[in-house]
Amino acid sequence: MANKRALSLQKVAEKAGLGINSIYGWKKRDPSISRLSKVANVLDVSVDYLLGKTDNPSSDNTEEKKVDIEDEHVIMTYQGKPIPKEDMEIIKRLLRGK
């Protein structure tokens, strides 16, 4: 990924505020999540992408999840509290454009 951005590993480490040879040391020991996060920010990718857990380099960690608001088993919340049934009916109407 650094090559695609035309950055050397040393330059990535520098931009991430890490020691100049810090990333090279990761061959011998695992980096901390905070260090991985810094490198991910420099490269504009997700930590999961750096770890090989996804092929999607997007740094946007929110994957699109569709929720069927008609499903009675889905509990929608606002500020940690369940949305009352009456309010859910209003929300459903608004989403349907009616």
Automatic annotation (TrEMBL):
Stored Pfam families: HTH_3
Protein name: HTH cro/C1-type domain-containing protein
Gene Ontology MF terms: DNA binding
Domain HTH cro/C1-type, chain residue ranges per copy: 3-50
UniProt superkingdom: Bacteria
Source organism per UniProt: Loigolactobacillus rennini DSM 20253
